[in-house]
Amino acid sequence: MRRIGEKITMLVILAEVVAMVVMFMFLNIWLSNILEDRVISDMGIIAHHRADLAENYIEGRCDFLNGYARSQEAVNVLTHPEDPELIKAARDYTLKYAEGYDNIEGLYIADWNTYVLAHINPDSVDKTFRDSSAAKALENEIREHQGSFCTGIVLAPVTQKMVLPVYAPVKNDDNEMIGFAGAAFYPEEIGVQLDIDEETKYGYTIINCANRMYIYDAARPELMGTECDDEELWDEVKRIKADPKIQQGDHTQDGQVMSIYYMPDYDWIFIVSEPESEVYLLVGRVRNMVMVIFILVTVLLIFILRYVITGMMAPIEKINNQIVRLEASDFSRGHGIEGFTGRNDEFGTISRAVMKLHDTLENQDELFKEMLDVQTAGMVVAKDVNSELLLINQKAKELYGIPKDYSGNITIESIRKLFKKEELDHIDEQLGKISPDAEEVVFESTVEHDDGTKHYLLTRVKSVILSNGEQVSIYSLMDITEQKRLEEDLKIQSETDFLTGICNRRSGELRIEKLIKEGKTGMFCLLDANKFKIINDTYGHDAGDEVLIGIANAMRDTFRSSDVLIRLGGDEFVIFAPGMPDETVGTNVINRFIKSVESISPESIKDHRVTISLGAVLVTDKLNFSEMYSCADAVMYECKKRDGSAFAFYHKPDV
After folding, report:
1. CA triplet 55, 487, 248: central angle to 5 degrees?
2. CB-hemisphere CA count at 13 Å for 290?
3. Right CATH number for 70-189 from 3.30.930.10, 3.30.360.10, 3.40.1410.10, 3.30.450.20?
4. Beta bridge partners of 109
5. Are the beta carbons of 108 and 122 closer than 8 angstroms?
């Protein structure tokens, strides 16, 4: 009997080892794929975030140039290019405007022939830096953009350094483009915006898709201004650009793993790269850890199987009944097998082994229940998706909002009643995807506890067929409320002007365009502070900031929470009030707003009276933002010719 037992033991152990090896291979591949996808996903998130920082930097340079292009000195010198006094004023203003900007290579005003009237470099004035065809092409590009824009990277003719050129039109009082302003910035400043230092783990690269030129490369600055000839990379870029829903991809070249993020506003790509050895370092460690665990589990199972098989040689009926009870988690005693434990033959050996198994399983059952309740993740096991509840741990009860002292029967139906109907519809849609052959289903849901707090749950569900043929669904729950709140905070910060707390230009324009597309009409206002430059020059920029904050507060106090309040930049603001019925009501609202503005009196500006000029447009048709801006801008500048605060409504000229 010992020989038969040994043979059975060896066969089972061999089968167990083979099964563990196969399981290890499949689990290893599965975990490797998950971890590799996770690493690539993390790099994609970093690429998206860093691309936003780069875009913010470029937009900041464009805002900087916009302020310069709108200066009266720029308008005057382009209107009267032969007047020496105006030329001197423009050149002095140019030098003053560029003070404190160490990363700027050039700042200038030029006519459409690219004849330079003012420049921070005295050696560059009174020169034409493009031939007629190139100048005309630049003029067309500036007129097409309407506002400031960055063209990529070029070699500066004077310093022979790679720079980022930015252009913006200069408009006269009739809103006609009469020339342009230009600036050139060193691309190395992008690294400062990306917070790159010696401890930075990843490599960052920006490439212009239009001409395949490197705009920025943190690790290889010598590439800036050269052409990227990696055709496989451009094949991936073409794939990304072909589908608007896809804005990211990945690529591997020369031992570097790259995550590519497409920047559609500029037709650039932002690349985050890292050596393959670093990317897959975690994957290798997990593989080794899994292998060690499988070896330990295999060794442990070998010993357990040896005892189990030996126990099977005991009297069949008693052993069978005992095993049946153990399978049912019945750990009661006194069923007859204890009588065999004192024998010195195989029956005694088998009986003692079975009783030992009895004790072990009982302890494991108690230990499993204790371990389940101390898990940081909620665990739920159901017979199928919407049927009998087999198991729920304490953490799951806490996440669902079930009180600790609740003594009633918890069922699937009672858990479903905790969710609102729309949440249940979403959950049922996701649960409908579950099958034994499918991967785990992952979805988010929200549940409101009795105290009124709203909690976000990340649920993973996997359908499993047990060895007895039963199908169960295993739920794993995690609380992601803090993560959701952080995402919302980040979204608010990206859409808000940091000084005044109202919408910034980008988010405000999007909100207005969305309202217009939805068919909303109302009043569009464009305003700025009169003689704001005098406030800054006389009392300092802190005083200017107080005025801007005061104007924003006056906007909040006067207009509704549903109205769109925007700071475009500098002292320029926009208001869009949907539903404004006519000019009479609009006039009353504007008068209240002006009264609120004129009450602004920071101590730092003493007795200076804050006034504004405001152009308003009553929008009755589907105009885009630029059209509304142009109409309001025209009447606003007419108002600036008056003393004190003034406003006017735009009316279409008679045909």
Report:
1. 50
2. 18
3. 3.30.450.20
4. 118, 181
5. no
Tell which residue, 613, 584, 611, 599, has the closest CA to residue 525.
613
Nearest one of 650, 626, 647, 631 to 528, comparing CA atoms = 647
Most confident of 288-302, 384-398, 581-595: 581-595
CB contact set of 225 (below 8 Å; sequence gap of 6+)? 153, 154, 155, 162, 213, 214
How sure is the predictor about 314, in pLDDT bands with cuts at 50, 70 and 90?
Answer: very low
The domain covering 496-649 belongs, at the CATH homologous superfamily level, to Reverse transcriptase/Diguanylate cyclase domain (3.30.70.270)
* Structural contact between residues 86 and 76, judged by C-beta atoms closer than 8 angstroms: yes
Domain boundaries, the chain: 70-189, 378-485, 496-649
Q: What 3-state DSSP class applies to 270?
A: strand
Per cent of the chain over pLDDT 90 is: 30
Question: 3-state SS string over 68-137?
Answer: HHCCHHHHHHHHCCCCHHHHHHHHHHHHHHCCCCCCEEEEEEECCCCEEEEECCHHHCCCECCCHHHHHH
DSSP string, 240-261: HHH-TT--EEEEEETTEEEEEE
Q: Which of 32, 44, 27 is nearest to 282 (CA)?
A: 32
Query: Residue 381 is encoded by which pair of tokens?
Result: 């096991």
Q: Give the list of residues 6+ apart from residue 43 with CB closer than 8 angstroms, or none.
A: 202, 250, 257, 259, 272, 274, 279
Cα–Cα distances in angstroms (integers) from residue 129 to residues 46, 156, 301, in the given order: 40, 11, 81
Q: CA–CA separation, 273 vs 204, rounded Å?
A: 7
Instruction: Give SS3 for 198.
Output: coil
Measure the CA–CA gap between 80 and 67, rounded to whole angstroms: 20
Tell me the torsion sign for CA atoms 542, 68, 564, 484.
negative
Tokens of 364: 């494991």
Number of helical (H) and strand (E) elements in the chain, helices listed first: 19, 21
Q: pLDDT digit string (tens) for 485-509?
A: 776 766 666 789 989 999 999 999 9
pLDDT (tens digit per residue) in 58-72: 898 899 999 999 999
**1 falls in which pLDDT band (50, 70, 90)?**
very low
Give the whole-angstrom CA distance, residue 271 versus residue 253: 12
Cα separation, 175 vs 650, in Å, equals 14
CA-based torsion, 31, 36, 41, 42: positive or negative = positive
CATH of domain 378-485: 3.30.450.20
